[in-house]
Amino acid sequence: MQQISRMLMKLFQRARLEKLGQVDPRAAEFTMSLLIAMYDRSGTGYVKTRSAAAALISLSGDTLLAKYRAFFQFYAVPDGKATLITRSALRSLLTDLNQIPAIVGESCTLSCVETAIHDCFHGVLNAAIVEEKFLSWLRSEPAVLLWLPTCYRLSATEMVSHQARCR
Question: What DSSP letter does each residue of the chain carry, written as one string?
C-alpha cells in the first residue's frame, strides 16, 4: 500500500500542476481510502498493484477504447509473438473491476463473471484470446461491465454545453 500511496501522491501532484485549482489536495488520500475499501476489506494492509491500476484506469477520464487497451496490457500475458488474455486473467480483471460497483452496493455474482467469461470466449478454441477479440467483446458492452460505459457517457456529458434556452 505504501508503494501505491507514493504513486498516487506523484500522480495527483502532477495533476495539480496541470490543472491549477481543480485537484483537491487530499485527492491521493481519498483515492487510497477508496482502493483500500475496495481491495483490502479484511485489513491485511495489502492491495495488489494490478487491482489498483484497474480501478484507476476505469475511473480515469480517458476514452473507453484507451481504458480497454490498458486493461488488456495489464492483464494479458506474452505468448511467443503475441500477447494474449487467458480465461483466468479475464476472471481476475472482472473480479477486480467488480469491486468498484460493489463499494456502492451494486456488485454482481460470481456466476455473472463466469457468464461473461463464457461469452467472451464463445467460439474460441484456444486457451487465450488476442487483443482485438477482447476489445470487440468489450465494445459489445457485456452486462457485467455495463456500468463502465455508462459512467463514461455520464462524465462525457458533464462537459457538454449548448446555447438552448429553457423556459
Answer: -HHHHHHHHHHHHHHHHHSTTTS-TTHHHHHHHHHHHHH-TT--S---HHHHHHHHHHHSSS-HHHHHHHHHHHH-EEETTEEEEEHHHHHHHHHHHTHHHHTTT----HHHHHHHHHHHTTT--SSEE-HHHHHHHHHT--GGGTHHHHHHHHHHHHT--------
